[in-house]
Amino acid sequence: MARRQSNDSEPLIIDRSAAAEIPPVEAIREWARDKRVFISSVISELPSERAAAAAAVRAVGARPIMFEEFGGRDADPENAYLAEVETSDVYLGIVGRRYGKPLPSRYSATHAEYLHAEQHGPRISAWALQADDREGHQQSFLDEIRVFHVVPTFRSPEEFKAQIQERLKAIAAEDLAPWCKLGPIVFRAN
Which residues pair with 15 in a beta bridge? Predict the structure, then answer.
């Protein structure tokens, strides 16, 4: 939510998180043209789901950011992916069964990326693979995310891809037509 001062000293309040009517495909593609979506998960556990996520991001016209596509870098891997999280517009977390190898920070790479996203402001969208056998640390990580975010589950890469596309369209709608409040008047901007 952003606040701006209007000319008559009433604050203008802009709420980008309320549901909005989904705009036409052309408007979504224009919105997505310069958007970066960081895809975060244990890479070795969820390759099909990561591919589905990247396909969903591309389908709406945004750019998926994935560690396996970074290429050669001078920076150490942890600094490289945290820098990419910081410069992304959306953090897309995928929670599977495995927590991943702890880094020197004692968090897995996925957990560190999530914490960095919380601190540096990209929109956070997270999903959980439907599973009853998560590692202890992974279940604790999922519980932590659920304290502040709705975390839908999915059963297949195809279902996951469709959910991501719908979520990105909803984010586009929120950004393109936020709720605004000017004094006692509340309206949808566009």
Answer: 179
Q: Give the max Cα distance, the chain.
A: 57
The first and second tokens of residue 44, run together, are: 């070795």
Answer for the pair 47, 98: CB distance below 8 angstroms, yes or no. no
The amino acid present at 179, given as its one-letter code, is W
Q: Is residue 15 part of a domain?
A: no
pTM score, two decimals? Answer: 0.83
Task: Please give the structure tokens belonging to residue 125.
Answer: 């969208």
d(CA 95, CA 85): 17
Length of the chain in terms of residues written: 190
CATH number at residue 108: 3.40.50.10140
Domain count, the chain: 1
Range of the domain at 38: 32-176
Note the pLDDT tens digit of each residue in 86-120: 999 999 999 999 999 999 999 999 999 999 999 99
Cβ–Cβ < 8 Å for 95, 141: yes
Kindly list the distances between the CA atom of residue 58 and the CA atoms of 50, 107, 121, 167, 171, in Å, as whole numbers in the listed order: 12, 29, 22, 13, 15
